[in-house]
Amino acid sequence: MLFKALEVSENSDKTYTSALVTKSVDDLPPGEVLIKVQYSSLNYKDALSSIGNKGVTRNYPHTPGIDAAGIVEKSADPHFNRGDKVVVTGYDLGMNTSGGFAEYIRVPASWPIHLPHGLSRKRSMMYGTAGFTAALSIYHLKKQGITPPSGKIIVTGATGGVGSLAVAILSHLGFHVTAVTGKEELVDLLMELGAKEVIPRDALNDLSGRPLLKSQYAAAIDTVGGNILATVLKSLQYGGVATCCGLVNSPELHTTVYPFILKGISLIGVDSVLCNRALRKEIWEHLGTDWRPAKMDKLINSCTLDTVQTYLDLMLKGQGAGRYLVRVSP
Ligand code: NDP
Q1: Domains of the chain by range and CATH?
Q2: Ligand 1 probe mutation, 67, 177, 229, 248, most atoms within 8 A of CB
């Protein structure tokens, strides 16, 4: 059986080119579950894979796409039957395993989960890994006892995939959200999503050398790392909690122990890739029900396999906004 896929190839001069190609299901890696992909979505990791980042993808040619939602076509595992509606995010999908920017994927049976009630395939990919990660970050804050009366929650990289959904879900859950963005022109969008205030990214780049700053936030969802995260940590209230998941500002974190030992703050790392299956299902259930933000549609841009690369390039320049849904097949 033949199908369409976006394929990234390595050129002899170490540049990378993506093109739509025709592949055969026989080319797919081994696995118990063959899935007809209907929707995928764009994530920063896909952008890195598309330019040959070997930390994400070692071997080319390769089909990126760390997210996929669709229908089981064939299964050698009793937990899945032909026609089941499933979603796959994380694990090795789209990294070194042929990913969701293709009409078919084949994966181990431990990767897909059945779509929870209340979540369509399309909506699951409006969230995708970014939305899942935003929700997982919120889960960790709540687990640490952070509630709306605790105080303000600051979200960095607020117009990005993870950030925008964190703003939307937290606001929906009644939290007071402070959004941090480098895009002045999208302040209104962030306010529409429910942010109570929006502050410019430059204001979160403390270079004073002071170990502590004014205590302003009960919690933080950081998606960018670097000195922005270091500044956020210094600005947490006593007992504050921050999650970190990303590195678009920098993978480095230079800080001191003072916020930890004088204010009792916590920093929690968030990983959506190997998150255990029970928690994975719980998070998707939340996204389909009580954590589903009303204003999410404002965040969604749509594209097809033909136009994916244009939007990945925007992401690499830090110019993307919201979520990009990929319509893969009918
Ligand atoms: P996006 O590209 O959608 O968004 C990133 C946002 O960060 C941008 O929209 C921009 O928002 C801000 N930004 C861009 N460049 C810079 C910069 N130089 N300094 C500071 N801020 C910047 O990415 P995602 O939201 O999908 O992912 C965010 C991060 O989280 C990535 O590093 C990604 O790899 C990581 N991630 C990790 C996961 C995990 O499991 N740990 C899962 C998913 C994502 P604005 O202009 O509003 O500031």
Answers
A1: 2-115+297-327 (3.90.180.10), 130-269 (3.40.50.720)
A2: 248
